[in-house]
Design brief:
This is Sorbosone dehydrogenase family protein. This protein is mainly beta and 433 residues long. The chain is built from three helices and 32 strands. Helix 1 crosses helix 2.
């Protein structure tokens, strides 16, 4: 990993000092998890919010994440460039979206500090803009083939195959490519199906309906709390439904600040997503969350959060607040839960059916959270209990360095759980020990 700049190191030092002063009297805040979280009262942080991020270090030698008891982990593939999300093809090949946030044009001093911090943490920079195909031809749990499958796509993230068409969610468009089973490269140009607005929260995840007639496209907000005006947030902070036959789209659900991972829960047939909530109100306020997504549902952003708690920093809309739906399950403040994958019972020994969640970790906390592959059990179509850890130790004990950062999660053809690690440049593979 490249050494951070002198300015980035200075920002990190100042940030640590500011965190120590600002949070000196807070005491230890327990992570806010579950279906009935007790969320601390908001403490607006003003124009200079808490800024804390580890320096990206990566894995060295045989160092790897720690798997939960009864499980083991191996590197399915190494040497990628910022892998973010995956899709497993019918023949077992794994497509990996390699991309990252663009550095942008910082204007204020805080913008410059944030930009330097994101680059030091390897959260932004020169995006690879590539989809790579990984193939484990001999079935030993390690991909021995790697091919540049699609190149020159602006920040690809979502990938889904429907019939003989492969769909890719780029930051600026929904794209369609002809798919040929077994091919290691697509050279045909994409068809643009839908324009998307780049910038801000840039990931554009995709999932297909069970009957393959529709795509759902997750688009995050441009800003934290709509501070650039709600006109700039049009068609953002929402999940779109795109009809593949008619070519028409509509907003399926809104008020979702940054929905990323999506998965179907099979018992009730509901779409679920993980959402990154707003910054600047405290370590655990409000929590990121896992929620079912109702057709036409509004989930509060930017006017309120969780159980219609009003965000006083935002010009209010009483009707919107009154219509806001409460999320199903709190995932802790600023965990940056990005990946989501349904695991049938027995996928991992000792784990029931539920959702695997890649928690990337974020910056607006005095004590970092996330940085793990977590699991939430489901019963009768709903999450229950507290999260369980599947993979941990992506972060150094002193929180100064990240060895890796979990993102997308997928179920491999052989039943193993795959997880993209965008700082370690690895796809990890989890199975029973």
């Amino acid at each position: 990993m490249a050494e951070p700049s002198l300015f980035a190191r200075f920002v990190a030092l100042v940030g640590r000092g500011a965190v120590a002063i600002r949070h000196s009297g807070d005491g230890s805040l327990e992570p806010v998890y579950g279906t009935a979280p007790v969320i601390p009262v908001a403490k607006p942080q003003g124009k200079v919010p808490t800024l804390k991020m580890p320096t990206a270090k990566g894995w060295e030698g045989e160092h790897k994440p720690t798997a939960a008891a009864g499980l083991k982990v191996n590197a399915f593939a190494r040497g990628l460039v910022h892998p973010r999300n995956m899709h497993v093809l019918p023949n077992g090949d794994v497509l990996v979206a390699e991309s990252m946030g663009e550095s942008g044009n910082p204007r204020t001093l805080f913008d410059h500090a944030m930009s330097a911090t994101m680059q030091r943490a390897r959260a932004s920079g020169n995006s690879p803009n590539r989809v790579t195909l990984l193939r484990d031809a001999d079935g030993d749990g390690v991909a021995e083939e790697s091919h540049a499958y699609i190149e020159n796509v602006r920040q690809p993230f979502g990938i889904v195959l429907v019939g003989e068409t492969l769909y890719v969610g780029a930051s600026d468009a929904l794209l369609a490519y002809p798919y040929e089973a077994g091919a290691t490269r697509i050279i045909e140009p994409a068809r643009k199906l839908m324009d998307l607005v780049p910038g801000g929260h840039w990931t554009r995840n995709l999932i297909a309906s069970k009957d393959g007639t529709k795509l759902y496209v997750a688009v995050g907000s441009l800003s934290n709390i709509g501070e650039k005006g709600m006109a700039a947030e049009e068609n953002r902070a929402c999940i779109h439904e795109y009809d593949l036959e008619s070519g028409q789209s509509r907003i399926f659900a809104s008020g979702l600040r940054n929905p990323v991972g999506m998965a179907w829960e099979p018992e009730k047939g509901m779409l679920w997503t993980v959402v990154n909530e707003r910054d600047g109100l405290g370590d655990e306020t409000p929590p990121d969350y896992l929620t079912s997504v109702s057709d036409g549902g509004f989930y509060g952003w930017p006017y309120c959060y969780w159980n219609r708690v009003v965000d006083d920093r935002v010009p209010q809309d009483a009707a919107k607040v009154a219509s806001a739906l409460q999320p199903d399950y709190a995932l802790g403040g600023h965990t940056a839960s990005l990946g989501l994958c349904w695991l049938p019972e027995g996928t991992l020994p000792g784990f029931p059916a539920g959702m695997a969640i890649g928690q990337h970790g974020s910056w607006n906390r005095s004590k970092l959270s996330g940085y793990k592959l977590a699991f939430v059990a489901f019963e009768n179509g709903k999450p229950v209990g507290m999260p369980r850890e599947v993979l941990t130790d992506f972060l150094s004990a002193d929180e100064k360095y990240s060895y890796g950062r979990p993102v997308g999660v997928a179920l491999a053809a052989d039943g193993a759980v795959l997880m993209a690690d965008d700082v370690g440049d690895v796809i990890w593979r989890v199975t029973g020990a």
